[in-house]
Amino acid sequence: MSSKILIIGACGQIGTELTARLREIHGTENVIASDINTRKLELVNSGPFEIIDAKNFNAIKDCCVNYNVDTVYLMAALLSATGEKYPMEAWDLNMNSLFHVLNLAKTGIIKKVYWPSSIAVFGPTTPRDNTPQHTICEPTTVYGITKQVGERWCEYYYNKYNVDVRSIRYPGIISHKAMPGGGTTDYAVEIYHEAIKNGNYECFLSENTSLPMMFMDDAIKATVDLMEAPADHLTIRSSYNLSAISFTPKEIFESIKRRIPEFEISYNPDFRQAIADSWPSSIDDSVARKDWNWQHSFDLDAMTDVMLNELKKKYTHS
Ligand code: VAH
């Protein structure tokens, strides 16, 4: 019998594409999209949709009971840059939404939870190159603190209450269907749009800032593969390291310039440079590759080809 799935934060960058993929797999009527408002009308009109504030326990519970939901993907969060501007709001949303969903699973109303963590759980004292699954985590951003504490709670609810909660430490994610919101890695999406629209881009990170990154198709595949993996294959119940590629603003610029020779870039680091400098430059995701056969598909140039082709179509038709 197909799962009944609720996606909280379905209008976000990952939620938008996760909703589409899960509807392909499970059937549109079995995947309820939800968000705090109806800002993305094509999603609202594409299948079951509910307005849910992720901070509202009763709203989440009522939706799960009414639709007989067995699996929740909690994708709502304030990301790193926004979290530094609104620390208490980030703590409130990122933590209380997680407690609401974990407690619904603890009571048995739902059976399975997906909750995204991030490489933001690492900090300046973490080994930066090929960062291992188990290492020092002293995050210096509010967002990173919420993800680190959230991982501890996920593992606690698994060990104490046998809640089947699964999680991935996403790197920066690049996509063309929905814009990211308030992240430090957002430059790696903006740069493609500006290359098509204006032929130049002012980057808010310095040219040699290497960060772990991933094309959205790989991130969605990893999320689905983890959730479909046999429970007894999983050795991590905090959150899995995951990566695909690492690159600098200079390297992504050069990948684009090989396809758009007239494209130019300038660098004007802002407050997000300090956030990026606190994160790893590359990630060891060998545990995910061993436990559930994770394997990325897109390298930087393959991602650039798809991004530029899709955005050229988007801006040609708009
Ligand atoms: C951010 N895109 O920049 C998110 C992500 C690893 C970065 O968690 O905050």
UniProtKB/TrEMBL annotation:
SUPFAM superfamilies: NAD(P)-binding Rossmann-fold domains (SSF51735)
Protein's organism: Winogradskyella marincola
Family statement drawn from the similarity comment of this UniProt entry: Belongs to the NAD(P)-dependent epimerase/dehydratase family.
Pfam families according to UniProt: Epimerase
Domain NAD-dependent epimerase/dehydratase: 5-232
PANTHER family named among the record's database cross-references: L-THREONINE 3-DEHYDROGENASE, L-THREONINE 3-DEHYDROGENASE, MITOCHONDRIAL
Name this protein carries in UniProt: NAD-dependent epimerase/dehydratase family protein
